[in-house]
Description:
Protein name: GNAT family N-acetyltransferase
Oligomer: single chain
Distance between the termini: 44 Å
Enzyme class: transferase
InterPro entries: Acetyltransferase_Eis, Acyl_CoA_acyltransferase, GNAT_dom
EC number: 2.3.1.-
Pfam family, one: Acetyltransf_9
Amino acid sequence: MPLKTPPLAVRSPAPFADAAAVIEIAARTFGNYASFRADCAAWYVNHSHYDWDASAVGFLGDALVTHWGVWGYRMRIGRAEVRCGGIGAVATEAAHRGKGLMARTAPHSLERMRACGYHLSILFGIDDFYHRFGYVPAWPESRWRVKLADLPATLPPPRGLRRIPAAPTQALVRLHNRWNAGLTGTAVRPTFLRSWSGMRKDVEAWCWGADRERPEGHVVVQAGRNRLVCAEATGAPDAVLSALGALCRRKALPELRFDTLPYRSALAARLRTLNSRYEQRYAESGAAMVRVVDLPGCLAAMAPELAARLAASELAGYRGALTLASPEETATLRLDRGRVEVVHGRSAAGARSAVRGGWAVARLLLGSDAPLEVCDAGKLRLTGDAARLVPVLFPAQHPQLTLADRF
């Protein structure tokens, strides 16, 4: 008689007892084993914002066979900040794949994220998998391209352009937070403390400015085939373009490409005044995906931003309520002449004006696309004044997350 497989025991990993096993399953699943194992030990799992309490692992007997990792950070939605669980290193040991073990592992993490105070969760995943856990497309990946010959000839040369270590220093953290303020989808740094995630080993970082301790801006670049790829940039737009132009000329590269540059950034606005190309790649499932973890908590964190949007609109004098519902939760906003608050108890029983339906409510909160298009594509049902309120409260935000902060 064949031996019966022991039941899967799912829990959060212990920081010391399980660290080696977590690193081992991640290293065996992703990338080059030796180098990724070293990265996990040095900065990706250990010494990072990996959340041991919110992550999940599954054991068959004494063997760790599944892992669902959570990296906790603050994400901007306009001027609001929400707690976000970034999902990474999702792995099942090769011998145990196809048995539904991850379907029994992931729910533990989702429950733990809610208990730990997370509002939303973001991941960058494979096709046709994560939708079963309530994740929906978050945003399209974007790229900008501009030829070196199309940069303005009158750009002043950058003052003190110099190469710096490719690492998240305090000075670069300050620059990132300053120039990304109000840009939806971006992370409030620090995230990773010792290295940049999602980038190749051959990245270069450059900064400029007279004060070596307080640079005026910086760029992170990689030399590609016939182009210089800019993975992130801060500083005045013309100074950024001047620095990148100088680097292109040094490396004899005729074109610039910007990956994950936020559409609403000052630099993107400057590119829209030049001869440039903007591309977006949509994915039905996979790539950037989002899930609501705590709907009332997320709306409460967003309340000041929602109030500012309402007060600046033609509905500034509106009084009433709007209910939003996901498959798991319902939350109601009380709207009172430019003020917004999340209400509970009898007041939250369900307003006449409501947005109800599936998981696409997460796309609405994030401003993934034009709001009424989000509702239509996600089969969200609008009642009462919802069709008037939704475009005001949840406008398109063109969210992006820089490669350095991905998990």
